[in-house]
Request: fold
Amino acid sequence: MPLSEAVNQGPQFFYLAPWIIIFPVIGLLINMFLGGRFKERVIGIIASSASGLAFVVAILLGISLLSHPEGVVLRLAEWISIGELQLDWTIRVDTLSTTMMLVVSGVGTLIHIYAIGYMHEDVRFKDDLGRYQRFFVFFNLFIAAMMILVSADNYLMLFVGWEGVGLCSFLLIGFWYDKDLLGRPGTENALAGSKAFIANRVGDFGFLMASFTMFWGFKTVSFGGVFSQVHHIAETQPGLILTITLFMLLGVAGKSAQLPLFVWLPDAMAGPTPVSALIHAATMVTAGVYLVARSAPLYSAVPEAQAVVALVGGITALFAATIAVGQYDLKKVLAYSTISQLGFMVAAVGMGAYVAGMFHLITHAFFKALLFLSAGSVILGIERGHHHLPHDDHHGDEVFDPGDMRHMGGLRKRMPTTFWVFLVGAVALSGIPPLAGFFSKDEILADAFHLNFPVYIMLAIAAFFTAFYMGRQVWLVFFGSPRHEAAEHAEESPPVITIPLIALAGLSILGGVLNLPSVHILTHWLEHTYETFHLHLHAGEFNLQVALISTGLALAAIFLAWLLYGRKPLIKDQPDPLQKILGPIFNGMNRKWYVDEIYEFLFIDRYIDLAKFLSIKVDWDFWHDWFHDKVIGAAYRQGAKFLAGPIDLGIIDGISKGLAKLFQTLAAQFRKLQTGYVRNYALAVFAGVVIILGYLILG
Amino acid sequence: MIPISYYIILSALLFTIGAVCVLIRRNAIIIFMGIELMLNAANLAFVAFANQHQVLSGQIFVFFVMTVAAAEVAIGLALIVTIFRSKQSIDVDQISSLKG
Reply:
């Protein structure tokens, strides 16, 4: 192939790369300063256009990469320059980062459009119209931060984006920080935001330690600089790379909600549904997967770290999938499903199947965003239905949770569009061919089958659970008869909500085209990036046996779900049929295997004990009572007594009293001169005159 | 022509008598007279030297001294009268309130 000609021929839009960050920033600035004067729709359109323009730039970058697949590194400005540390604000445009840009801005734009409709109703339901503007400012800020994350050319710049998305996640989870789900005063949302932030701090510690160790060992943190030295350092100091990768895994576990730091993600569902879809399903939580895929040369150098990453991913996938089975909350099921699917991706990138991981990341972004947004549409529909109910007194007292699947049922007829798109998402997630989820999940399973059989077993079981809980959800929500008056009166959502859903449904159906077996568009696309770092990708071979097993498992799981939930639909106040069969195991699933309680006992209670010990024993008893009162206080009192007694009373007062005494004595003597007799004074004057005259005359 | 030394000796004698009178007498009026005697002894010295040197300034000074003496007498006698009114005596040893 005449490469040199191709290089000169194709269109070049690489200079546009900074705009991928600038457009969202412009959007958020406009909305922040002028949004108060605009109508809601204008605010939404500005925010969506900002995200949409970033998507256009990402497409242009993708087109440029077709003819210049090696990508470019754009140096924008010098950032930090201290001694050996030379950091520039550099944007890296290659096939891997552009893939992420396309997913983030593409799915992000659809969710922005959806949010125009969703937040319109949400702010009315929660009765605070002013927050509409704030929501879109945060949303654009998130896109900007995510773009910094994926376009970074060094680990520290990536960390800036990493923290930026973490901040947006915190702000948006606690978006209704002073209200609960129903708009009543409450602090649960704010607490959920804090939980996410704190859990992520633990991960960020790992990320930072990895960066510091990296700088210590490699003398640089830029991707190019680090990856070019990997071979050399792997031979001389293999422990160093193992340390870096394992610390980095801690960061991945925090951001991508893996064991043991996954606990924040289910609580993060407190945020508005577009937030759950964009940040906590499609984009931010996949940052950890991207990080491992980006750091592939490091991980490939240490098989031990790869094994740990794959194991963490596999266990998380299975663990979270079992919890998802026992949840009643519509969004919680999807949250645990997200954790489980992130486990698939982490396991894939851990095994070295970077393409499979990225492929699943993309398709998951499509169908999980779709599922969350449909869930949001369902919740809105239920809220609309609830709104229409006659509000008697006993309704006011009753706590009605619009996200509880036990209150739903029969929504298929009330909300047909939402039902169909949700079904598409569910089938895609369950891994039924020919939808997107089948191809990406199957590629992971096929790679695992060859590379790491124990992880393959875990993932296959997790896939079975995945299909089961999605089947359970679809039958509980959309089939049977309504189990609550609100569900009876549920209404379909307006087109601004359903059109992005239909678009995402289309992507979820067709997403598999990206990397069809034996065509491997994505593999060849990403190969360009990995070849730069002398890493050779193997195209995941289609394995008919694996594909048949996983499809069989998925169909079996769906059939099982139909047996339990579809054949005899749940009626009002009937317990979950699974509870009868599994008993305590179901309770364990429902209570998330008591992980929150265990963490509460292991960490939070111990932390409170430590805090109490520090405050009562160390601070109060030792520091205050003993050290301050006894040591410092007593020493001070002794010192003061010494200064007051011998020094002040003795020396200082002695001097002044002695002086007084001296002058008193002298005065008593001089007083005697004042006889009061005029003649004495006259004699003194006379004598004085004689002496002065004598001196003048004789002297 | 009487030599100037005679005047000077007389002036010195008068001054000494006045000074001793001021220092040893108790009666305020006598002390006063002593002061006058000293002033006039000075006057005598002034005019004697003025005549000796044939300049007028010495004689003019005498007039000033006499004027001041007159003013002094006026104030001094007034003081003595006031002291007498309060103490019923003009013995200066009685006026010893400033004794330390």
